[in-house]
Amino acid sequence: MKKLTIATSVEAAKPVGKHQVEYPDSKVRGLALRVTPLGGKSWTLRYRNTAGKQRRLGLGAYPAVDLATAREEALAVLGSVAKGLDPAGIKRAFRASASAPRVASVGELIERYLRDGERGKHRPNARMKRTRTLALERYYFARHIKPALGNLDIPELIRSLLQSFLDDVGDGAPSTARQCRAVIRQAHNYAIRREIAEANPAQLTELPAPGQRDRVLSDPELRLIWTAADPDRGGLVSPGTALAIRLAMLTLQRGGEVVGLHASEIDEVAQVWTIPGYRTKNHRTHAVPLSDAAMETIRTAFTLTGSGPSEFGFPSPRSPEKPIRRDALTLAVRRLTRRHEIKDATAHDFRRTGASNLTRERIGVSRFLVSRVLNQLSDSGGAAAVTAVYDRNSYLAEKRQALDAWAALLKEIVSGESRGSNVTAISAARA
Predict the structure, then answer these.
(1) Residue 63 β-bridge partners
(2) 369: DSSP letter
(3) In this structure, which of 81, 103, 217, 367 has its CB flanked by the most CB atoms within 10 Å?
(4) What is the side-by-side order of every strand in the sheet holding 41-48?
(5) pLDDT (0 to 100) of residue 101
(6) Cβ pair 33, 23 in contact under 8 A
(7) What pLDDT sits at residue 424?
(8) 68 vs 3, 41, 146, 381, 428, CA distance in Å?
């Protein structure tokens, strides 16, 4: 292709047939005159940014921009590129931001962040946020963040103002303050990546350190809760929620996993409950051997649902195609423990209580095996955590021994009946 040397060359440049053609400049590398099939002429500059990506930047139409001016503009752009700038990239980002919906307030930002969280667009290479996670984030946003901060323009939410908000919310409720800060911090990280905000006010804010819970329920407390969670008794909690409490006590699984129990997850013949990875905290499919007591509890739960449309063991009374919410279990345990004056007890304490009893001399299970029962990635971290990635042994038989022994001990605690001799068999299965 003939290169442009003087102004008359520009004037003489013609299209080639029905194709667009570019005539490179002889003096400035990357500068070219683009000629359309209809004879329209414009200047374009090609260059590579510091990341090595090729860019193209339009410099205006001819004859409004002549050859000398185009060369001056091209040299100025190349000079800025040498300093690390990317004019074409900046122009593209500006156009994208101009066409995107305007986000002005903190409330609008968090709402957009939550909507994109439903699609896994809240951060790079992310999974879709779990339904439960989104529900919790929306709760803290609607209950605490939006009323106090939602109408602020994004730049108005400075660190000192956010710190004051967190201090007020955290007075007596430190966990609420932590949750609120997490939502605000993640939403602003999202905003920085989308060039909606320039800074994250949540950085360097202070919160009280979370307390390490060590609550283990005593035998009398376990007996009171189990007896109160009687589906035939009625009163404080519904029959279905009462059974969910008992199943959580028997299986030692997380509350969210228990309330989401689905018929497709249960193998009645093998007496195994397989929780799919999308429902577990660590995203790993988890096989839970079911003791006779746990299996009977599940059968009773599905009997309560009758022949209705729900396939959930604990369906929502408002919408049978959904399970009850995790907080329904929390509230139910709170009602029962308050009625029986059991202080500072939660549904999550069932896991710690069961694990503590499993590792004691009462049963004698290794911590390694307990971590498998609880579906924790590792009981010690380090090399053990790496090994867990490759070790696909589900330890089903050993887990069954442990959970059967726990169910027997729980029955002994509740009823006073002897659980028989099983300590030797369990101890022999230590890892």
Answers:
(1) none
(2) H
(3) 217
(4) 21-24, 31-35, 41-48, 54-61
(5) 57
(6) yes
(7) 39
(8) 15, 15, 56, 66, 89
DSSP per residue over 301-332, as a string? Answer: HHHHTTTSS--BSSB-SS-TTSBPPHHHHHHH
Tokens representing 6? Answer: 């003087």
15-33 pLDDT per residue, tens: 887 788 888 998 999 999 9
Give pLDDT, residue 309.
Answer: 65
Position 427 scores a pLDDT of 39
Handedness of CA 318, 324, 326, 330 (dihedral sign): positive
* Residues of the chain under the 50 pLDDT cut: 307, 379-392, 422-431
CA distance 162 to 210: 19
DSSP at 72? H
> Position of tokens 């030692």?
252
Which two three-digit tokens encode residue 328? 């329904």
Token pair belonging to 357:
């009893």
Q: Which residue has the tokens 């007075």?
A: 171
Surface-to-core class of residue 393, CB atoms within 10 Å of its CB (0-12 exposed, 13-18 middle, 19+ buried): exposed
Tell me how far CA of residue 235 lies from CA of 80, 238, 248, 297, 359, in angstroms: 75, 7, 20, 19, 35
The two three-digit tokens of residue 178, written as one number: 């932590």
Q: What does the alpha-carbon distance between residue 15 and residue 19 come to, in Å, rounded to a whole number?
A: 7
Note whether 252 and 354 are within 8 A (CB).
yes
Task: State the greatest distance between any 2 C-alpha atoms of the chain, in Å, as a whole number.
Answer: 106
Two structure tokens written together for 83? 């300093």
- The 8-class DSSP code of residue 363 comes to T
**Strand blocks (E) in 6-142:** 21-24, 31-35, 41-48, 54-61
Question: How is residue 38 written in tokens?
Answer: 């209809």
Q: Cα(149)–Cα(31) distance, rounded to whole angstroms?
A: 50
For residue 105, the SS3 value is strand
Output DSSP code: residue 209: P
Strands 31-35 and 41-48: antiparallel
What are the E-state strand segments in 304-422? none
